[in-house]
Structures are given as C-alpha cells and as structure tokens.
C-alpha cells in the first residue's frame, strides 16, 4: 500500500470506538416536533431527511472516498427509536474490557435528560416485548432461541448492480410514475402504497442532499488548500458528490463513491443487521475499470489506491452497540459486511475478472476487521483464482472465506428464484444465501437444538430453572427404543419452533407497519412496482431464516444414548440422567466413556453421521417451507456466529460427555476435538448434510500458516475446497492458529484434538506430538506471528 | 496404579488390547490394527472424491509394505478394480520375485535410496544394499514410474561423495526417475521415548536448512536429474 493508504489505515485502526449521540438527539428532536403529523413511511423518510440535512459532514485528510455515518470515524450512532440504551447499558458499554464503546459525560447527560425520557416505552424494542406472549418470553429466557429484531432492524441485505447505471433521480422518476399509476377506485391498498412511495421519493432527495453537502464541504476545503495535489483531489471529490448518487456514475472513482453513499444511506436510516453488503463488487466495477484503463485516466496502481481508500471506510463503521443477550450472541465490533468476488454472471459464464484479483490484493494489503471478503467459487472459475485466494487465506486473517457458487445457485433456485436472479445472488453477513438487490432474507434467530434435546430428556422441564416450558413428551426412562426418544425430541422441537415463528410473525408485522425502510426500499426490486416496503413484502423474494446451532453436540449426544443405553444396554437411562444432573461430578469414568467410546460426528462414520442426517431432516421438516407474513417462506441456516457460547452457557451437561456451561459445537463443525481422522473425514461427514436444502452452512477449519508455506500446500488446500464443493458443501473458512491457542492445547488437549500443525515436511495432530516438539512449534508460530 | 497415576510395564504387555477397551479416557491405544483386504478397501474408497478431484490415489507405506506382498497384492487388485491410482513407498529391501509381482500392480514407486556404498548402508541399516540397488534397476527395466527419495541426514547421508554416487547411479537407470529430497526431522525422538527405546542418532544432528537442501539439489541436478524437496 502507498503512504496515503498507510496513513488512512493506521488512523482507522487506531481510532477509538466511541458512542455518538448526534443521531439519537436529532431523531429525538425530529420526533418531538413532528409526532402524529405524517403517515409512518413519510415520517420515517422525513426523519431520514432531517439526519441528512443536519448531521456533521466529515471529510478526512487524505481521503478519496468520503462520508461517515457518525460525526467522525468510529464514532458510532445509536438508534433510540429501535432500542433505547439505559444509563446502565451505557455504563456497561463504557467500562467493559472488550468491545468497549467510550461514552462521555455529555452523552450520558443527553441520554438522561432528553433521549431516554422521550423514547422509553415508545421504542420498537419496548413495544415488541410488550406484545410478545408470556410463553415466548419464558422460552426466550431459557435460551431456546434468540431474537434478532428485538434491537436491530431486519437486515442481512445485499445490494446489486442496478444503481451503477441509474441515479437516484431516475429512481425517483420511477416512484413518481408508480404513484401516478395508482388506481384508488380499484386498489384497496392504493392509499398505503402512496404513503410508502412518497416516503421513498423523499428518501431519494435526502440522499442527494446529503451528497451535495459533502460537495459543498469539499469545495470549501479546496479553496483553502495550499497543496496543489490535494486541492485537485478535493475538487474531484466535490464533483463526484455532485454527480452521484443523483446520477449514474461515469467512471471508476464515481462508482466507488456511488456505492458508499448507498451504504451510508441504508445504515443511517435504520441499524439493519450486517450493516449493508455491496454484492459482487468485482463485476459491478469492472466496466468502469476497463473503460478508465482504456482511456488512460486510470492505472492498475491508482485503481488499487482508490479501492484501498474505499475498503478502509468500512472499518470506520463498527457495529451499533448492542445490549443484553444480543451482545453475547454477537460480541464483536464487526458488522459483517461481506464482499463477494468471483462466481458466475447472470448468463452463467465465469464471473472472475482482473478486479477479482486486484481486490484479493487489496484484502491482503488492508486486512482490517472490516470489511470481510469472500470468494464465490464456481466450477467455471479458474484454479488461478482459487489459488490466489488461498495465498491470502494462508496469511491467517480468517478471510477470504470460500463459498460454493454453484451450490448457492442451486439453493436459490430450490427456494423459488429465477436462475438469473440466483446467479446474481450470493452470500452475505456470515454465510446466508440471497438474491442480491431483490430479496429480503432475514435471519430471525438462533435455535439451541441441544437445549431442546435437554428439555426432551426432562419431559418438558428446563433442568436449569425447574420451569416447565416444553411439552410432556414422556419420561425418558420409559422409552423402550431409540426411535421413541427421537420422536419425543421431534415433538418438542415442533413445539418450540411454533413459539418462535408465532413471535416472529408479530415482530415482522411491527416492522412492516411501524418501521419501514424507505431508502433501502428504493434499491431493492420490486418495492417500487409493488408500492410496498422492504419490511413489508416489497422485495421480489421474502425469506426468513432460522439458524440451527449445535448439530455436533446433539448428534454425539444421541449417538451416545443410542449405543450405550439402547444397543449395548451397558448404561441405564436413569444413571445417565443422574450423571447429567450432577454435571458428571461423581461420574468422570462415565463422562470419559461417553466421550471416547462413542462413534462421533466428524469421522466419516456412518453411525454418527446418519444420526446427524436424521436430526438435520427433522429440523428441516419442522421449519422449511412455513409461511411468513410477507408472502415468503422459512428456510434453515446452519450457523452460530458466536451464539454457540451463549447457548452452551444455558445448557447443562450433555450425554456426549460435555460439561455443563461449556460451548456447544459451532456451525456444522464436529464437537471440538471429536474428529480424529483428519480434514478429509471432516469434509466427508459434514457433506452428508444436504446443504442444498439450506440457506447457508458454516464450516471452520484451523491451520497453522506453515501448513501452506509452499505451492504444494496451496494446491492441497485448493483440492480440499474443490472436493468439498463437489460434495455440495456450502462454505468453508480457515482460521489461523496462534501460539496462545497452542499453549492452551498443551494444557487442555481434550479441547484441541483436531488441531493440525505442520511439523516438518508433513502435518500431524498437535496433541499427538511430544512436549518438546510442541514447544518447538510454539516458538516457530510466535516467530511467524504478524 | 501408583501415586503418579497408572504405571505400565511394557515388558509384560502381550498387546491383548484389554486395557484399550476398558480405559474410558482413551489413554491407552494400540497403534495399528488387523484388517482384511475388504475392510481396507472400504476405508480407501471413502477418499474417492478426493482422488477424483486431485488426480491422486492411495499410497501403501509402512513400515515396509513389501513384508506382506500377498496381502498387498490383494488390495492392489481391489484398487485396480475401482480405478484407484496406486503408489507403494518402499525401502527396496524386498524379495525380488515378490517385488516383481507387486510391481505388476503398481502405478508408482516411492523408492528410498540412502547410500550407494554398501559398507555405509550396512553400518546404518544393518543390511547390505546389493538387493536394493538390484531391485531399483529391475523396476526401472520394467519401465515403472519411480520417485527416488533420498533422506538428507547431516553427517549420516550428507557426507562427502554419497549424493554424487547416488546421482551417478540414478542417472544411469534405464528409465529416467525424478529425485525427491527428504529432509531429516526430529519427530522420532518422541517415539523413542514412548517405546522406551534408546536413541541411536548421533547428537547434534539437526534438520537441514533450505539452503543446504538447495545446495544438495543443485549438486544432483548436475547429473541431469529432476530434483525437488
């Protein structure tokens, strides 16, 4: 990276994360003055306009792409109309040792005097909790599931390429035409459609106004700028901001600025999950890149500088601060913006171009927390592309993650998308599949499957609290066969899924009617044509996901019971339940036996893997295809983010030998340390799940950077990925292992049995090595740390 | 069971496996197990997607697979029936006729070559290398694909003249064979301890550096050989 990029990167990296009350105060002012004057969509649009008109404009020294959501980089706004932090929340945010948000006295005062008094009782969160059933709350408190929309708006959305050839003024024209076409005589919804469309038109103007304020500020800075080069840059920034987003971009630089304004608009209006995802940037930007190179106004180097300045902007925007359970399930500054590279074009041809490679270089150069990047790997993409990605992967940033582009298309087509829309789709956030620019695909919450099994083993009672929150599906000691036990689990699962979906339907209507996303709706097909909001079925496709967690833990638990209780008859169910109740306190040999003498998921063993498939099918039948309130359907995802830790904390000891309170398995990975047959066996096991019937699965693999220290290692990693995708695997990401983890593995080998390290010309399980060699590898790893 | 935990007298062990069965923590393990050719081919077939993707296959290694030529031949035939590529990793010290029957079923040999000097070979391995060198020539005459693998052990194989002699020998084989250098590593040190065996390698033998490997590789390339490490 050049010096300018180095400076910007350092600034972004070093800037402290602070909580800014600017947005909260402005929105409070606006609502105080205007409450009751307008329809809900127009109110939301005018509030957005108020923010665009009033908020501080920041143009940083050295910047080439401009615009911040907060008053300065990493100053994070809050959204009190959705979730109003209490004073206690603010103290926690300010004082906690990790993912801290600095809150100064002025901010506390503003909350105490102005923001809290107005919003308490009026926020979406307050109203949602008020409207949910007691049953829902009891189940939620037990940690059976989480709820995404209790403090952040529906999100996980990805924009497509439409606004690179069409400015907001043209969108506004479409909106006005749609209003014109409304037929009040025959369409009973015409009136609400008009409100929605009016709101969308106001939002277009607001975003243009926001850009023009940046143009004004840049012009003013240019006048006073002594340095000739910077002066010219500021003039160019001003001209970019006059051009976009009102009009379509004409060149590479304008295209980058265009996206950035769209990004800022969507994350200012609401705090949707996963910030905003830009989609296939390599494809969208490529025509501008090629044209500018051809004209001689851009070089590969100058394009890279612009891209790097653009990349750094994402890192200036940590996730809005969360509270309570949501902070535990997703305790990170990362707001999960995820950029897609590669894949296939809408016509099915290879989507990799020169920018795909350049963007991999940018990821490698910048490697900040945000944005994340991934490659969408199609069988049509060249191996050169995969290997270029592997060379970045081996640096150990955790990205790019790797997705099966052809599998993603199949998933989307299975759930009813047109093939062109499916190919133009991809993945966002963590791993979730969607049709970019045309779909609301909403994660609604994680489901704690091992917890549901625990409640099955206690005939409907949560052993942690003694509360009866489930069905009476029978005392486990009375079950004669494994099938009876499994059937009890299936019924228990159905019960909790019903409660979850009932709550979702209510919350969904709350967002549809109370918190429309009018600006985002402009950018998602077919909200304008339908005259409906993004949150109310306006998009072409409307999907809800429930994300199932702990497949490894529940599979191994079921396998242990099947084998030792029902097949071998060497263990009484009552003895097992007693051991679980006491957290194996006096039953360590039994715990070890269950953990070590049971076929376990992750070893390409059909006994255990068959149980995993049966659990998967049961989850799928309980959830997939159920209708939401927006004309769309539910599908399942298999990903945990960091929720496997929270879910483990509310779960007692499990029959797989897991102690109470410890994390459950993450993603679709085997239980930590249960896989002993190497990465190929893991790949075989996890691929027995039918990934094509999900909307995303998550597989983590760990390695030391030295495993990939030569071309042969890169080849092998590439072959491993290609094989996994041949078997319809959805996603894999590779985590680097650091020296601290290795030290932990020395003292807690049982948690790290699957850790593979490069020894000499070969790799081995770390825990199988002698102490001396382990120490040597730790020294080597520290040496390689970056 | 003593104060320090379970004590084990290796002398008395008959490898009956009872301790492995009953130990709940999995602390005891028998390395290796008895398998039939059918069981083994089931295991091998599990990796078919990886073979298909990478163009790879199965490598029979050891120990020394040629100590069980009949079993090996059976499994090699089962692999052939399934179109699985077969490699055999051998030290070359094998019965000539047995090797010939195996060779008819093998796609690739990984053939270790430590010394050309018979005395040195005798000194470090306990046997002469006559048969090994003859076997290598025979396989080459049979036009088998062979990777010649040379362990690089400082002060043992990396001594004056040894690699030159190997280079000359390999260059004179009837069919060209690429050479792979295998750098010495220290993993076995732990195994000696585990099996109560005395360490026999001279002190101070360290894994060779990349530079040393490159020096050896370029010396071997003077014999017009393809060398990698």
Quick rundown:
Chain A is α/β, with parallel strands linked by helices and 786 residues long. Helices cover 51% and strands 9% of the residues of chain A.
Summarize the SSE layout with pairings.
The complex is a heterodimer of chains A (786) and B (229).
Chain A lengths: L2 H12 L3 E3 L1 H13 L5 H15 L20 E3 L9 H9 L9 H15 L4 H8 L2 H8 L26 H14 L8 H35 L3 H16 L8 H18 L11 H15 L4 H16 L8 H6 L8 E5 L11 H13 L5 E6 L5 H11 L7 E4 H10 L4 H5 L2 E3 L3 E3 L4 E10 H9 L24 H33 L3 H6 L3 H4 L10 E9 L1 H17 L5 H9 L6 H9 L9 H18 L9 E5 L5 H7 L28 H9 L13 E4 L7 H16 L4 E6 L2 H9 L8 E3 L4 E3 L5 H14 L2
Parallel strand pairs in A: 1-2, 3-4, 4-5, 8-9, 9-10, 11-12
Antiparallel strand pairs in A: 5-12, 6-7, 13-14
Helix pairs in contact in A: 1-13, 2-3, 2-5, 3-9, 8-9, 9-10, 11-13, 12-15, 13-15, 15-16, 16-29, 19-20, 20-26, 23-26, 30-31
Chain B lengths: L17 H5 L14 H9 L2 H7 L2 E4 L8 H13 L3 E6 L5 H8 L4 E5 L5 H8 L4 H12 L3 E8 L9 H10 L7 E5 L4 H7 L15 H12 L5 E2 L1
Parallel strand pairs in B: 1-2, 2-3, 3-4, 4-5, 5-6
Helix pairs in contact in B: 2-4, 4-5, 5-7, 8-10
How would you describe this structure to a colleague?
The complex is a heterodimer of chains A (about 775) and B (about 230). Chain A is about 50% helix and about 10% strand. With about 775 residues, chain A is of the alpha/beta class. Chain A has a domain of about 290 residues: Alpha-Beta Barrel (Anaerobic Ribonucleotide-triphosphate Reductase Large Chain). In chain A, the strands form five sheets. A five-stranded mixed sheet of chain A has the order 3-4-5-12-11. Chain A has a three-stranded parallel sheet with strand order 8-9-10. In chain A, helix 11 packs parallel to helix 13. Chain A is globular. The relative contact order of chain A is 0.10. The model of chain A has no long low-confidence stretch (mean pLDDT about 95). Helix content of chain B is about 40%, strand content about 15%. Chain B has a six-stranded parallel sheet with strand order 1-2-3-4-5-6. In chain B, about 25% of the residues are buried. Chains A and B meet through helix 25, helix 28, helix 29 and helix 31 of A and helix 3 and helix 9 of B.
């Amino acid at each position: 990276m050049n010096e300018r990029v180095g400076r910007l990167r350092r600034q972004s990296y070093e800037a402290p994360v602070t909580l800014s009350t600017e947005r909260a105060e402005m929105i409070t002012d606006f609502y105080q003055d205007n409450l009751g004057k307008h329809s809900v969509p127009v109110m939301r649009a005018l509030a957005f306009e108020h923010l665009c008109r009033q908020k501080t404009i920041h143009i940083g020294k050295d910047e080439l792409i401009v615009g911040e959501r907060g008053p300065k980089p990493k100053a994070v706004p809050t959204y009190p109309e959705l979730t109003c932090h209490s004073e206690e929340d603010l103290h926690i945010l300010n004082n906690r040792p990790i993912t801290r948000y600095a809150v100064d006295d002025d901010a506390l005062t503003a909350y105490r005097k102005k923001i809290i008094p107005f919003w308490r009782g009026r926020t979406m969160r307050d109203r949602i909790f008020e409207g949910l059933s007691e049953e829902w709350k009891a189940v939620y408190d037990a940690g059976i599931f989480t709820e995404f929309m209790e403090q952040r708006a529906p999100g996980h959305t990805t924009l497509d390429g439409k606004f690179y050839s069409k400015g907001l003024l043209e969108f506004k024209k479409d909106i006005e035409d749609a209003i014109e076409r409304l037929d009040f005589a025959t369409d009973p919804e015409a009136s609400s459609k008009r409100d929605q469309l009016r709101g969308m038109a106001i939002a277009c103007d607001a975003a243009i106004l926001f850009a023009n304020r940046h143009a004004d500020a840049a012009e003013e800075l240019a006048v006073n700028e002594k340095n000739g080069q910077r002066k010219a840059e500021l003039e160019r920034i001003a001209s970019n901001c006059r051009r976009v987003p009102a009009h379509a971009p004409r060149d590479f630089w304008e295209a980058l600025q265009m996206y950035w304004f769209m990004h800022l608009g969507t994350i200012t209006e609401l705090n949707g999950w996963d910030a905003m995802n830009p989609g296939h940037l390599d494809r969208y930007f490529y025509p501008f890149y090629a044209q500018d190179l051809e004209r001689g106004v851009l070089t590969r180097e100058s394009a890279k500088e612009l891209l790097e300045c653009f990349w750094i902007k994402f890192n200036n925007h940590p996730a809005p601060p969360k509270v309570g359970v949501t902070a535990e399930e997703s305790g990170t500054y990362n707001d999960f913006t995820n950029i897609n590279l590669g894949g296939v074009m809408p016509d099915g041809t290879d989507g990799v171009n020169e920018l795909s490679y350049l963007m991999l270089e940018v990821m490698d150069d910048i490697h900040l927390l945000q944005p994340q990047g991934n490659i969408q790997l199609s069988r049509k993409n060249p191996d050169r592309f995969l290997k270029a990605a592997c060379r970045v992967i081996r640096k150990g940033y955790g990205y790019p993650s790797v997705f099966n582009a052809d599998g993603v298309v199949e998933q989307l087509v299975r759930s009813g998308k047109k093939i062109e829309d499916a190919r133009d789709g991809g993945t966002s956030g963590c791993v979730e599949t969607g049709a970019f620019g045309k779909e609301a695909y909403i994660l609604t919450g994680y489901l704690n499957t091992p917890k549901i099994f625990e409640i099955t083993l206690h005939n409907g009672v949560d052993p942690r609290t003694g509360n009866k929150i489930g069905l009476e599906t029978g005392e486990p000691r009375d079950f004669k066969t494994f099938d009876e036990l499994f059937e009890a689990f299936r019924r228990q699962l159905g019960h909790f899924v019903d409660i979850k979906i009932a709550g979702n339907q209510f919350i969904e209507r709350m967002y549809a009617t109370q918190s429309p996303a009018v600006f985002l709706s402009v950018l998602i097909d077919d909200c304008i044509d339908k005259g409906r909001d993004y949150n109310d079925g306006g998009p072409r496709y409307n999907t809800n996901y429930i994300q199932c967690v702990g497949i490894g833990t529940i599979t191994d638990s079921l396998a242990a019971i099947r084998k030792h209780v029902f097949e071998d008859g060497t263990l009484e169910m009552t003895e097992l339940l007693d051991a679980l109740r006491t957290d194996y306190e006096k039953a360590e040999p039994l715990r070890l036996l269950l953990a070590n003498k049971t076929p376990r998921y992750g070893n390409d063993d059909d006994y255990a893997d068959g149980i995993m498939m049966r659990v998967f099918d049961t989850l799928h039948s309980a959830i997939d295809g159920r209708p939401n309130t927006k004309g769309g359907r539910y599908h399942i995802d298999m990903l945990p983010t960091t929720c496997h830790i929270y879910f483990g904390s509310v779960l007692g000891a499990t029959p797989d030998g897991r102690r109470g309170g410890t994390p459950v398995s993450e993603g679709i990975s085997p239980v930590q340390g249960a896989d002993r047959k190497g990465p190929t066996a893991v790949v075989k096991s996890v691929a027995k799940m039918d990934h094509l019937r999900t909307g995303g699965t998550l597989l983590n693999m760990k390695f030391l950077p030295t495993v990939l220290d030569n071309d042969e290692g890169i080849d092998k990693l590439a072959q491993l990925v290609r094989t996994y995708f041949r078997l319809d695997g959805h996603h894999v990401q590779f985590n680097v292992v650091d020296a601290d983890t290795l030290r932990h593995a020395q003292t807690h080998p049982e948690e790290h049995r699957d850790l593979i390290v490069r020894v000499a010309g070969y790799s081995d399980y770390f825990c199988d090595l002698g102490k001396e060699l382990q120490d040597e590898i730790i020294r080597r790893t520290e040496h390689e740390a970056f | 069971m003593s104060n320090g935990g379970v004590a084990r007298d290796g002398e008395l062990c008959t490898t009956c496996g009872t301790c492995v069965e009953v130990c709940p923590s999995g602390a005891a393990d028998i390395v290796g197990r008895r398998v039939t050719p059918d069981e083994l081919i089931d295991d091998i077939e599990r990796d078919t997607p990886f073979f298909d993707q990478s163009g790879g296959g199965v490598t029979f290694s050891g120990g020394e697979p040629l100590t069980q030529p009949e079993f090996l031949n059976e499994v090699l035939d089962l692999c052939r029936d399934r179109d699985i590529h077969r490699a055999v990793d051998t030290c070359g010290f094998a019965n000539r006729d047995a090797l010939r029957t195996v060779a008819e079923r093998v796609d690739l040999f990984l053939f270790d070559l430590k010394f050309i000097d018979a005395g040195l070979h005798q000194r470090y391995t306990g046997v002469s290398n006559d048969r090994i060198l003859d076997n290598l020539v025979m396989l080459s005459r049979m036009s088998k694909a062979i990777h010649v693998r040379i362990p690089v052990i400082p002060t043992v194989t990396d001594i004056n003249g040894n690699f030159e002699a190997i280079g000359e020998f390999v260059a004179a084989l009837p069919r060209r064979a690429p050479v792979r250098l295998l750098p010495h590593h220290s993993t076995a040190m732990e195994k000696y301890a585990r099996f109560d065996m005395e360490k026999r390698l001279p002190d101070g033998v360290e894994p060779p550096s990349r530079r040393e490997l490159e020096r050896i590789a370029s010396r071997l390339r003077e014999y017009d050989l393809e060398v990698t490490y």
